[in-house]
User: Fold this.
Amino acid sequence: MSVAECLPEAGPGVPDIDPAAFRLAMRELAGGVSVVTTGRGALRTGLTATSVTSLSAEPPTLLVCINRSSSVLPVLREQQAFAVNILKAGHEDVADRFAGRSGAYGAARYGDADWTELATGMPVLADALAAFDCRVEAILDWHSHAVVIGRIEALATSGGDGALVYWRGGYRGVAP
Assistant:
């Protein structure tokens, strides 16, 4: 039995929340902006995410939530590895490309930014505030999203600059 099959169905006592109202309310939650990358060569792809969080320090793991309709998810499932690149103020163009706002898809989203690799070979943004190179430990399909749990194999930090956050539909820089 999958986790999704264990979920309760809406019924008495379960509120019926309008998805649009939920999305509007969630705009009040400021979130750090990251780019999740996976794939190699011409099959590289990625997306912009604010739904990234640490899960455990021992062993070091994190989780990412990805819409199940995303074109990135099948590649991530195949690769069984991904990187989370925490963006700094000034990386708005990178965030927009990976959010699909530039019209670029797949490997074209990588543009002219400086990319490198760590342990798994997944693309890592060289000047990200921090980058976590992960192997997939589990993927849980949960309603509209997949919860991806990654064991951190390597990390890199550049430090110093302010973070990029997303709040109320726009980017903001947070100074140190």
Summary: The radius of gyration is 17 Å. The chain has one domain: 31-174.
